[in-house]
Design a protein that fits this description.
single chain; 288 residues; alpha/beta; Cobalt-precorrin-4 Transmethylase, domain 1; 3 domains; four-stranded parallel beta sheet
Amino acid sequence: MEIRKVIPSGYCKGVVNAIRLAKQTRIDNPEDKIYVLGMLVHNSYVSEELSALGIITLDDSRKSKEELLDEINEGIIIFTAHGISEKIKNKAIAKGLRYVDASCVDVLKTQSIIKEKLQDGYDVIYFGKRKHPEAEAVISISDKIHLVTDQNDLEDLVIDNDKIFLTNQTTMSYLELKDLIASAQQKYPDIIIQKEICNATSSRQEAIYKLQDCDLLFVVGDIKSNNTNKLVEVGKQSGIKKVLLIQNYKDINEDDLKDVNRIYVTAGASTPPLLINEVIDHLKRITV
């Protein structure tokens, strides 16, 4: 049985930078209360690692970012890698909180492009995941931004403007985006399009499509991670016989290894290298 690691996989530059900023914030402020408004990156292992440093992650799917911010009255707030709205940032300042913005540069680039198009009089179609923090930060910018999550949303969309611009959340599937763009061009022939899937997302997805003779693909990552879930979808779309999402090596079921000759292991951009290596080491131990 062969066990191979997909290259590239695991941490991207935005995740590395966000974690570095959070840890440096603790080093620079050893006595202060430090909070993260949401999950710094979508991996519970990272949240636990930060907790060990005394950095508190405030994450509750039942509450908005603004409601979570209401719970903080002192200390330092860290905004996550997914971006943050100006409204939340300004509210933190008004409360007298210091903040550290760990937003990914690719996310900020997309936001900047959208703001430029809005200033030029465009309505913006934004392809993203509903309730994802990156998408929430973008759609908070203007009511001229229309969140589209799938083909049905696009069909239902009504825009009374000749100037329309389409872009996307950085962690979406490039195949889904390709199909959506084709439909959008049919509906709005003069639409302007700029693909904003980040290099880390696209390169990891493309690597899966290039796999040869893969019987089983393990995707290591958190179930809350959009880019991780997209890797699972891409694996299935590429025709791999069995694709399984696992959070760590403990999720591996030996029954899934029956009649398997070649196993590949990949991981989402927010998955720590330690977890990937543990999965590979465990597979090697139980398949000897």
